[in-house]
Amino acid sequence: MRKLIVANWKMNLSRQEGINLAQDLADALKDESKAQIIICPPFTHLAEVGSVLEGSKVALGAQDCAAAEKGAYTGQIAAKQLADFRVSAVILGHAERRSYCFETSAEIKQKAIQAQSAKLIPIICIGETESEKSAGQTTKVLKKQIEESCPNNDNVVLAYEPLWAIGTGRVPSPTEVAKIIDEIKKIKNVPVIYGGSVKTQSAKDFLHLENLDGILVGGAALKIETFLPIIKAI
Ligand code: PGA
Fold this sequence. Notes:
The chain is of the alpha/beta class. The protein is built from ten helices and eight strands.
């Protein structure tokens, strides 16, 4: 499988900034890229960013979907509605949603089931806190999250995002990541990507790890000057 590079724009970029960045990426990646790139803008930008990316090497993703198929769920967006916009993947259970929106692993599993039935690849985020890491509980925590958040099939991507690395500038060493990815794959043998403060140098290190299937990039994916070197790091 080609390495996967997922850009999580979170709640950033105006409509026009999003369109411009997508256009810059589509232009820069005209030639064969060694990686599969998926851009996940806010819902409001999906239609226009999607049109800009049409026919390019860059795919479109979303940052969440509803746990139900349809109905009276004010403010929610169904996986099938995302599929209408040619969204091909969806980030689920991001640490920020688990924490600010009190999302449980059981809900995330329902979201993943909806995503799969709409033919979207669920990218399910897992990760330990700093105190869980210090207490030597990383594997135990990840195992529980995987068992409770994943549907009973292998049609998912797992994103290992240690909470202490998200937006902090701190990253685990490539050796540490490689060891944890091995442990994750023993629990569920699916593609696993790493996320948390990825910048050009760490991207280079991580993308060269044999057992790691890609990276999830937040802050550094918001500017072409910082994102392009990450893509080229492979
Ligand atoms: P970051 O975000 O690269 O800004 O740490 C990654 C993520 O939260 O997905």
